[in-house]
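[audit] Reproducing an earlier prediction to check determinism. Same input, same settings, fresh worker. If the tokens differ from the archived copy the diff job will pick it up downstream; this log only records the rerun itself.
[audit] input (1062 residues):
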Amino acid sequence: MDHFSDDELVSKITRIKSSDEYASYTAKLDEIAPDLTQADRNLQSHLSALLDEQRKRRTADDDGKLDAILKTVGASAPVKRKLQRPTSWTSGGFVHSKAGGSKQEDLSCKRQFEQVDKADNFFFDAKSELEATLEVPESISEDNLKKLKKAKAALDEGMSWAEDQAQLIGIAFIKYGWPTATEFEGEPVVATEEAEKKLKKARKVVAERLAKIEKDRNAKKPKIGDKPFVPKGGRGAYPYAQQPQQQEFLDCPSEFDEAAAVQTPVSPRITGRLRQRVGFWRTFASSLVVSWIIFGVPLTWISAPPPARFSANSPSAVAEAEFVSAAVAALVESGAAEEWLSQPAVVSPLAVAYRDTGPAPFFFTKITNELAARWRSQGAGLLHYLDDFLFIQRPLGRPFAAEQAAVLQDVADSGFLINQEKSVLGFQRLIEFLGIGIDSTRGVFFVPQKKWDSFQARLAHTLGRQRTSPRELSRLAGKIQSFSVALGKVCKMFSRELHFEVERHSSWDIVIPLSEEVAGELQFWQSVGRRQFEAPIWPVFVAFQNRIWTDAGGTGWGAVLEAVDGRPKQEARGHLSLAEREESSTLREMVGYLQALRSFSGFVQGTTIKLYTDSQAGWQILEKGCSSKHHLHRLVVDIFWECTRLGVSLYPVWVPRELNAQSDYLASIFDGDDWRLNPYWFRLVAGEQLVQPPVRHGWKAFGGSQAVLCGGYLQSTFWGQLEVSPRDPLEQELLRSMKEDMVSTRALGSWSSSYLGAFGRFARWCADRQPPRESCPASALTVALYLRFLTDRADSFSVVKTASGAIFAVHDVALVPRDLNPTKAELCKAVREQAKRKFGLGVRKRKAAMPVELLAAGVRMYASGDSKGRFSLFRLTVACMAAVMWVGCLRYSDMQMVWVGALRIYPTHMVFLLCNRKNDVYREGDVVYCARGGKWFCPCELSERLIAAGGLSGAVNLFQSWDGRKAVRDPQVPLSGRHIEYHACRREIIRMVAEGAGRTEQEVQAAFGTQSMRSGGATVVARKLSFEEFMRHGHWVTPAAAMRYVEPSTEERVAVTAGAGH
């Protein structure tokens, strides 16, 4: 099949638009437009006078005449708007492209055809409305009547010309294909008879070519089009030709039907039915949809060639090699593709899409939406998806027979055909639509039996094999999601594990075993019935017997039960575990929901409950029935099973915090004397795997408050074996204080953000095993299995490393001997080494050292005032902070400990005490000296100015935070008294350096950070001090650590090899 390029097509259309007929019509339209406007104005004036006269002597007999006049006035206004020439048109509506003139070749085909259709719509609508308006009173002047007749004749001539041009372009572009357009040469069509002669000649040439192609194709083996093609794997025929909605977008002559039938025989061609009835579509559809019906959906042309690219075929093409070979051969035979012998610029990969219809459903839906909007405007109730329509009879609407007749008539007028075999045209109360059953008698949606049986068969196959692939799991999840209309939020609740498992893998077709969580969800769906969960069609009003108000705080949860029948209120509260306190507020709220249900189980069993919460995140999770966070979703499932056990229906409602004050008060109560055992020990004692009690003297293991707050690792066997006399209070006090001090000296406080959270996750993982495993003391096998579990799910080695370090630290605090620590076992070392090789250690991108020139420019600008010359206290704070960090080689944590009361400024230098530096293991403290200089970034001078301007004294931070929003409006905003947060410190230093250097913040942030201050100062002083003085000034412990902060210059690096003799 031959194709035109953009240049050739533009040239042909330009020749059409430059014809004499076109110019003649344009001149006539320009000539009559003023006359028609004046005639319309005279007509309006005449009708207004007639209306005034009618108002003076109006009678009942004149009502009919008055109505006719009003209709005439209403119809003439659109005519005036139609005949006003659009300002964006030139020469009557089109942009000309003449030889030798300005370049218009870049006009796309889409733009040209849209303009032709626009002109066609213009003439059609103007002619129709003018004809409707010409029914005027007999008293109109003869002059105006002549002008209107002249305008009508001109419009008739223009309409005829537009139809001829649209016919020519339609022939060339769509109706009979590009082979016919190639044969159809010559000047624009003037006479219909001449056009028909050329058209017949062109079609004859194309028919001869097609006959030859068909003859050659039938001689080849195998005959692809003789029977339906079933690709490898039994997935069915290639779906493109089977989709009925595609037929409206395949605009080829009828002779192409047989050549295009590659995969399977199709129904008789119905191409052009909508185009033949475009008059009906014009009455209600948008101009865009009408243009699609006339000319088809335009393709987007690429103006510039894509970059050279050579890609391998996708795995789907390799798996379906037989199908791909047959499809390519069919494309070559039909002329849609050809063999290319030279080196191509782009090689696109081949892929097989199963049941993929591309963008066709989008355009088809846009077209059928116009019909749906028409029927809805007429009062019909319907549901619509692609080519499926479900009509709902309204109680007070039109009779069923009348509405059915109107709809069927519209379908026939539009050009669509009804599939009688798949359609139900009678009135039904029980029907299946889009795979969902609808029972209007009971008012519920349900899953059809056939669809449910197919799903159960797939479930049984997957569970029977105990192995599957991410693609199969994705299909099962999609199948479950398709039930959501009928089954409700339980579909999302019991399909999240399937989604989690699919997201863990990067390949669709690898074979994976069924995890315990995935198998649990599949077994759930295998055990329930299709009628067990049914969603109502109409809103259901529920009478609530109980109301529960819940809230959770930092350490506990609280709940209030209020019965509708007047029973006394019930209150409940409880403590959160140490691991739960470290989690998000949403998790704590959901733990409160679950604990409230368990606490009030004796009062709410078998009732309907309205649950009030002030957490929007928790309310939304319960409302949806799922969460994208794994730990939150598990709590949703636990709440579901708790409601199932109690036989309650739970309806969550969000309320503002002010209306939840009582449960908020209960959640904030903390009872230090509330001693309780960890539930894990109760489960362990009740289990069948008990060999000996893990605590020798359990009552002694809870002798101090830390034993409860530290979540269980002090209640270990080894602390229990430290026996003291129960009669000696001194020994008991010494043992208690020894535990607490040993925990504090091992820097337990520094674990809280990483180690305690990591060990809490390890403890929960151990508790979830069947039977549960001990987390402390843990066996080497338990730790190795957990590290392997993290290796399969983590993205970096740091996750495995942190977990191993947390387990080691907790066992070390619990006095487990080093040689018995499970993380030191060879098995655990092997797992860590495997994880390290899998992820790699990665490359640490260290920030560059801050050059003194950039720092000096930024400090000078900030210390001298803002952009308007006004003194700014917070800008002075940033300048002083950067200078002190650079000169003193301070980290951010060191800068936080610079107190005004521990700072002394002398004429020659400044000295301040840092009581607790990062590597100060024995808390000896460190004194930092800074000499006074004569430049802008002298820390002594800047500190004096900051203390004087801010009025700072005593035990307060020298560098304090401020209100950033107020500082923008008022530079004199006071400091807050609190230390500067890390993000504010980093942001303001970057902003200061960027402003001083005249660069963007993004450029500076990519190169420098807060550590750049420390490394910048260290790089400068390292060249001027002895090594011992350098180590003392920066308070480094090892030489290796110190040298990481020194950036050697290019000259120093080159000097190493300067004496090599080369």
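[audit] rerun output stored. Observation attached for the diff report: Residues 20-56 form the longest helix (37 residues).
[audit] end
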